Amino acid sequence: MQWPPPWRRSPLVSATPPPGPTTGLLCPRRVSEAGDSSTEGARTGHSHYVTPAESAMERRSQPFPSLRPASPTNAPAHGRGSDCTAKEPPLANVCRQNYGAAQDPVEPAGRRSASHVTGSSLGKAEVACGRRWRWAELVANSSWSPAGRATEMKVKMLSRNPDNYVRETKLDLQRVPRNYDPALHPFEVPREYVRALNATKLERVFAKPFLASLDGHRDGVNCLAKHPENLATVLSGACDGEVRIWNLTQRNCIRTIQAHEGFVRGICTRFCGTSFFTVGDDKTVKQWKMDGPGCGDEEEPLHTILGKTVYTGIDHHWKEAVFATCGQQVDIWDEQRTNPICSMTWGFDSISSVKFNPIETFLLGSCASDRNIVLYDMRQATPLKKVILDMRTNTICWNPMEAFIFTAANEDYNLYTFDMRALDTPVMVHMDHVSAVLDVDYSPTGKEFVSASFDKSIRIFPVDKSRSREVYHTKRMQHVICVKWTSDSKYIMCGSDEMNIRLWKANASEKLGVLTSREKAAKDYNQKLKEKFQHYPHIKRIARHRHLPKSIYSQIQEQRIMKEARRRKEVNRIKHSKPGSVPIVSEKKKHVVAVVK
Amino acid sequence: MTANRLAESLLALSQQEELADLPKDYLLSESEDEGDNDGERKHQKLLEAISSLDGKNRRKLAERSEASLKVSEFNVSSEGSGEKLVLADLLEPVKTSSSLATVKKQLSRVKSKKTVELPLNKEEIERARTPLEQEIFNLLHKNKQPVTDPLLTPVEKASLRAMSLEEAKMRRAELQRARALQSYYEAKARREKKIKSKKYHKVVKKGKAKKALKEFEQLRKVNPAAALEELEKIEKARMMERMSLKHQNSGKWAKSKAIMAKYDLEARQAMQEQLSKNKELTQKLQVASESEEEEGGTEDVEELLVPDVVNEVQMNADGPNPWMLRSCTSDTKEAATQEDPEQLPELEAHGVSESEGEERPMAEEEILLREFEERRSLRKRSELSQDAEPAGSQETIDSGSQEVLSELRVLSQKLKENHQSRKQKASSEGTIPQVQREEPAPEEEEPLLLQRPERVQTLEELEELGKEECFQNKELPRPVLEEQQSERTPNNRPDAPKEKKKKEQMIDLQNLLTTQSPSVKSLAVPTIEELEDEEERNHRQMIKEAFAGDDVIRDFLKEKREAVEASKPKDVDLTLPGWGEWGGVGLKPSAKKRRRFLIKAPEGPPRKDKNLPNVIINEKRNIHAAAHQVQVLPYPFTHHWQFERTIQTPIGSTWNTQRAFQKLTTPKVVTKPGHIINPIKAEDVGYRSSSRSDLSVIQRNPKRITTRHKKQLKKCSVD
């Protein structure tokens, strides 16, 4: 048994006559009882089929006898429309009325209200317009009838006050006849939950992050650089000394330079975007023009600096004509000179990477293979301080939105986010990779960063989370050596061993291209819903689900076991030794060996 | 069977013939021997004919049970020769060889040598020295007991000699018959063993058990000592059962059943059966009591209150209040000490005119009997055993004690009946007030009753109820009570069905829980119960102290009533005031109209806790919803209401205005596509900046440094 009974749900609906003809081609039309009484068949309930045009014709020929209110005074709720009733509705209106003409603000209100009085659309309009319409019962005097009977009949008709929905000026807000009474919109939480669930599912359905693969290099891609002014231009250096400049929109290579003998170790662009620098295994630093040479000209560097040692990395100052290289020591160069302004060393190991701070532009960070991360101030002759970790750091990257924060990609599979003012404890340890992390790059929003790993995958970490929110991998992608987040924060590029540069979406399920405002609103709403209900087990499970290659998966399992074993051992050691003799070291502090100033 | 009968008759016939043939003289002469031989042959033939009757011509191994001259080639016997075989003959080769001569010599030497004699061996026995020895010797000689060779007494020898031929033949025939019977029996057993039907075996087992029970009863009457031994055996079996994991629903079969039990009613029943079997097997039997042991016995009964942890699988769901249990068990000891002296006067007062010494064993018997009844009631809970038992009891009506016994039996049976129809207990008149107050339990397991929440006892009538339940289950030794009861209800026994019908109607549970009980205690409750009362009173006192000031039960009932009301489907009133009649303030739609537009809610299915007065089962709870609920409070929240509040605030445009919706759904970070986001500058965040040059990133809530972080920084700056 149905509960509540169907006729209980809306008393309004039950009172309506059977629906009249819609705009369909052939629809049964019951001639209204209040209408022409000439056809006996209609009265007894027979119905004949008419097309809309026919019906319009019919209506035109008839003077809308009973449906017309007898006088304006008889229809108090009729409002402005009463003066128009004498007019015949135009043919176009006859068709439109069925769609609920209320949506059309251009149409004169009076005509609209008149058109709604036609019997055929009565039921439909009622249902569609709901409580916005008011019923007006009219008493029509049918003195026109051929029978000459003076009958009084009740006519139900709709009318509404345009003051309720018509703007006074164009600049006014649209009035939205909308009732926000919470009693009318029950089950908020379950409904939103279902929406969130659907949004989560759709997100997973549309999660197709891979966009393109840029192939052309003839050896592994060793370094990547973004153009500071142009989003579409990307530079890459390969292990065979070749530098390529790519156009991302066309997804092709626009220029190829044989820059060095051996590896291109580092590449960086000048802040203005007119030239770029490369360093290679041939102990040279070369500056190149961003634009290609003229037709027939040789590819020639603007400047070439011959060094004494191999340079392993290069970075350009964000505002001034100064760049820094690293190798045996960190050298800071003036672009105009062939000798470094200053050289800074601390220890004797080779330095793998140097990075300028994008906000506090005089600061530099470098990481060396003696497990150090060293910070420098360009204005001083000596390094500032260094932190020694358990294992060597491959690269560091500064947060572009927070001056003191940088993240280090470490050999021990983890990434460490440090506050440079308090190096003894990392702000966050990011762990998810199952092999050495080779490169890291921040999103320009500073909320997330992407890391490239030797385990053939790249992962996206939120800055304040220790676990990654996304992992990208493909079957053919080998060890990922370098990774960059594009300056509009929408894409990620990664260069890997197997000579390809891959382009990914930063947000796997994001729709590319221009969004309409409604799409955008829906997207935002869905995003918020997902956020709101993220802790619900069902949603969480769906949102967290990722496919992983078998190798990574099994390694994760393995490392989980190892970690658990280590933890157990530690717990046992603490348990079985004198209380206080074995200190409890947090995961964050565990990996920092020392801070030296 | 018929073949067997035939064979027997044939045998008897042949024997008669033989008897006729044989002369009276029992000395065996040659001729007679021959005659005998003749008879023997005849008999042999006959046997062969019989065996050929049986389809298979099986050759049986000839067995020699008595002397016969017939020598079959298949079974060699040394009968015929009459010569004595000596070892030397066997050792001798057919042809003498020199090699064996030495061995022979050795053997002869060994033979010739006398064994060493123990000094005390012969003379001591033969010569009686002391008067005692002489006396014994005399005695032995008088009876012609063999002194030296203890094989056969002279009397036996004489009797052997005196055994006539006919007798020997009869004996032989007997033996043969016995053998035949045995083989038949074996064949039958084999056949039965092969039957695969479980039901058959079950029936057989049950029958056997019944038989054993009957025998035991018989034994108890005839020989109480042997019965005791039997009882001990049972006890031992119980111990074994307790030790083993059998019937604990832990075996492979049981596990598979447990999986199926969810879907299969039969499997569930099987599991239950096993469990009940286990319970039954591990049920503590009361040891027949000596005067000191009686205390122990009652204690055991009390111990039954505590559910056995190992066995009570399904009991653990809502265990009894340990507090209550503790008090119960602790109180029993004191009570039990008082029990004995009070009980005895009762017995005496009852006019069993027997001495104290005789009364004791009678009590023992009673206890035994009662135990037995209990066991049987356990076993035959399902089947009707009403007719069998009185039959057993009627056999021995010779003494006053036996009369008492029989009465007791009937009573206990009645109790059992009650037990069976516990579910449909009727609140009949004052015939059996105790029975009335019994409560319907959901299942047939007795310990379930023990599981009832004890807080019910705070009310008087419920206390009574609980006690009654306890008695029902424990079946305490209370002959007097039962007798009294039987006297009070003499006409109850004949019209048992009628009584049952009365019980058919349900007890009103609400009444049961709330109404005051009629004070029948003075009449019906015997001394033991009063004792119980005392301990119970202490107990109650304790509870009262603990729950002083709150009427737990009333509260619970109220709660339950509310829950029931809330779960009922509501009527729908669709009357529209002012529709079709005058409306306004103070005017109500007419009753007729209201009646017309009132939609009666359909009667829902009966509640699951309808018959459980002390349980509220929430039927609305949906276990499937649990998968969609957050189990653990998520990280940033410190209290669940914070989290709930965030969830309960809708953010959709269905519930919010457009503006609010937009505000609520704006992401934290908005980026413009196609715009380069440059690193932040000091002017962007600081107060120095007038306007941001780059608007590609709009950050709504820039990240604040956490307090911890700040602390850290401070510490570093101090360094």
From TrEMBL, chain A:
It comes from the Eukaryota. GO terms for molecular function: ubiquitin-like ligase-substrate adaptor activity. PROSITE patterns: WD_REPEATS_1, WD_REPEATS_2, WD_REPEATS_REGION. InterPro entries: Sof1, WD40/YVTN_repeat-like_dom_sf, WD40_repeat_CS, WD40_repeat_dom_sf, WD40_rpt, WD_repeat_DCAF13/WDSOF1. Pathway: Protein modification; protein ubiquitination. It is found in: Nucleus, Nucleolus. GO terms for biological process: decidualization; female gamete generation; maturation of SSU-rRNA from tricistronic rRNA transcript (SSU-rRNA, 5.8S rRNA, LSU-rRNA); protein ubiquitination. Residues 1-89 are annotated as: Disordered. GO terms for cellular component: Cul4-RING E3 ubiquitin ligase complex; small-subunit processome. Keywords: Nucleus, Repeat, Ribonucleoprotein, Ribosome biogenesis, rRNA processing, Ubl conjugation pathway, WD repeat. The keyword Repeat applies. WD repeats lie at residues 214-256, 430-471, 473-514. Residues 506-592 form the Sof1-like protein domain. Signal peptide: none annotated. Belongs to the WD repeat DCAF13/WDSOF1 family. Part of the small subunit (SSU) processome, first precursor of the small eukaryotic ribosomal subunit. During the assembly of the SSU processome in the nucleolus, many ribosome biogenesis factors, an RNA chaperone and ribosomal proteins associate with the nascent pre-rRNA and work in concert to generate RNA folding, modifications, rearrangements and cleavage as well as targeted degradation of pre-ribosomal RNA by the RNA exosome. Participates in the 18S rRNA processing in growing oocytes, being essential for oocyte nonsurrounded nucleolus (NSN) to surrounded nucleolus (SN) transition. Part of the small subunit (SSU) processome, composed of more than 70 proteins and the RNA chaperone small nucleolar RNA (snoRNA) U3. Component of the DCX(DCAF13) E3 ubiquitin ligase complex, at least composed of CUL4 (CUL4A or CUL4B), DDB1, DCAF13 and RBX1. Interacts (via WD40 domain) with DDB1. Interacts with ESR1 and LATS1. This is DDB1- and CUL4-associated factor 13.
UniProtKB/TrEMBL annotation, chain B:
One of its GO terms (biological process) is rRNA processing. It is found in: Nucleus, Nucleolus. Residues 290-305 have a biased composition (Acidic residues). Keywords: Nucleus, Phosphoprotein. Residues 23-49, 282-524, 688-719 are annotated as: Disordered. It comes from the Eukaryota. Residues 393-404, 511-520, 688-699 have a biased composition (Polar residues). GO terms for cellular component: small-subunit processome. Pfam families: Utp14. Residues 347-384, 452-481, 495-506 have a biased composition (Basic and acidic residues). Residues 701-719 have a biased composition (Basic residues). Belongs to the UTP14 family. This is UTP14A small subunit processome component. It comes from Pan paniscus.
